[in-house]
Amino acid sequence: MLVSREELEQREERELAVYAMRSCQSRGRVYPAAEHPYRTAYQRDRDRIIHTTAFRRLQFKTQVFVYSEGDHYRNRLTHTIEVAQIGRTLARALSCNEDLVEAICLAHDLGHPPFGHTGETTLNELMEGHGGYDHQKQTYRVITKLALRYPDHPGLNLTYEVREGVVKHDTDYDIVDARDYNPDEMGTLECQLSNLADEIAYNTSDSDDGLRAGILSPSAFLDLAISRRVLDSLGESATSIDLTQPLDRYRFVRRLVGIEVSDAIQATAANLQAAGVQSLADLRARGKNMAAYSAEIAEENRELKRFLFDRFYRHFRVARMAAKADRTIRALFSTFVEEPAQLPPEAQESETANGGDLHRVVCDYIAGMTDRYAIAEYRRLFDPEEGV
After folding, report:
1. Is the pLDDT score of 174 beyond 60?
2. Mapping DSSP to helix (H, G, I), strand (E, B) and coil, where does residue 244 land?
3. What is the per-residue pLDDT across 54-96, written as a single tens digit (0 to 9) for each?
4. Is residue 150 classed as helix, strand or coil in its secondary structure?
5. 8 A C-beta contact, residue 170 and residue 108
6. For the chain, how far is it from start to end, CA to CA, in angstroms?
7. Are the C-beta atoms of residues 5 and 38 closer than 8 Å to each other?
């Protein structure tokens, strides 16, 4: 039996919750486009995102560890896939639009530069006086301007709700600037769940990678309140589980993810019920997000984040990687600004499209690089024996 887009939209109407976003109710695209015969609007958005160069480049962009540190650590692509998987689980349990959540999750880090948050901080400093740099705003530039996939318009021409999900991506590491997307209006629940999925993914995966790398002390990690909760759930004690052993670590992190996801589902459902949300418009009119953790898990996550910041992100090995990344990006940036003739032709040509702003052209070029391309470009520019 063939399933048409209309049938998929009818299924959404029958099966999704009253507060969920339905594909047929989308506020549409910037550039008019005919509907697809067997994909909904959000399914098309998801597919457009996956097929971009920016999405493929995430494979060699840093999450915490630079790619050269090993093949088994998360990179920006594996992080994105984990976010999308968690996001779909949250959406399915709460009868939301899984395709919309997945599209937002897959797009949320497209604007990340090489070398993770170090690259972002460095570019922001270098762009002082020229509009600064923020990976979330850059993601919006990618999907609306920089991703050239169609002859008749720039960007991916995604639906309003996916674009809104990108600009209202609200976590501790993102700056919301929703001035063009009704800033007084709360994002869809799908948008809010994408934010939670991102937070769950980086908290749990960074814990896993930190333990795998031997940077995080297992005993100190197991002393955290969230870890004690996991141990109780497993029927284990801090002395009966060895996080230096892969199978014990996998088991522990798997349960940690499960606890975080289950709590987010239950707490969000409770918030919706307590607020008496009866429609999408009702949800949007609320003055706060409905998607959230319970108070207990939220506090335990704050402790986990502080622990990761102090013991992992500021560890000397991570600091050394960050220092090398900072030097690399600064050298590339200053060279291209001082001698723009060294930019590749396509980057030079984009200066006109950027209103003659050379700094933004250079910033876009560097932000689009993978870690390994940035390193290779550095060698081509500064090593006399390296081919250009």
Report:
1. no
2. coil
3. 999 999 998 887 777 777 889 999 999 999 999 999 999 999 9
4. strand
5. no
6. 55
7. yes
- Residues 373 and 114 sit within 8 Å (Cβ to Cβ): yes
Q: Mean pLDDT, the chain, as a whole number?
A: 93
pLDDT of amino acid 18: 97
Q: Helical H runs in 235-294?
A: 246-275, 280-285
For residues 113 and 123, what is the distance between their CA atoms, to the nearest angstrom?
A: 9
pLDDT at 96: 98
Helix, strand, coil % in the chain, rounded to nearest 5: 65, 0, 35
User: Rounded to whole angstroms, how far apart are CA atoms 296 and 353?
Assistant: 50
| This model's pTM is above 0.85 | yes
Rounded to an integer, what distance in angstroms lies between the CA atom of residue 30 and that of residue 350?
Answer: 22
**What is the rounded CA–CA span in Å between residue 213 and residue 151?**
46
Query: In whole angstroms, how large is the CA radius of gyration of the chain?
Result: 22
Residue 173: per-residue pLDDT: 54
Question: Six-digit token pair at 46?
Answer: 């998801």
Please list, residue by residue across 255-273, b when 16 or more beta carbons sit within 10 angstroms of its beta carbon and e when fewer do: bbbebbbebbbebbbebbe
The whole-angstrom separation of Cα 24 and Cα 6 is: 9
Q: CA angle, 133 as apex, 131 and 139 as ends, to 5°?
A: 115
> Which of 57, 64, 103 lies closest to 83, judged by CA?
103
Distance between CA atoms of 195 and 165, rounded to whole angstroms? 9
Coil, helix or strand at residue 153: strand
CA 183, CA 195: separation in Å to the nearest integer?
A: 16
**3-state class (DSSP) for residue 62:** strand
CB atoms within 10 A of CB 34: 5
- Model pLDDT for residues 253-310, shown as the tens digit of each residue: 999 999 999 999 999 999 999 999 999 999 999 989 999 999 999 999 999 999 999 9
Q: Is 75 helix (H, G, I), strand (E, B) or coil?
A: strand
Neighbours of 295 (CB within 10 A): 9
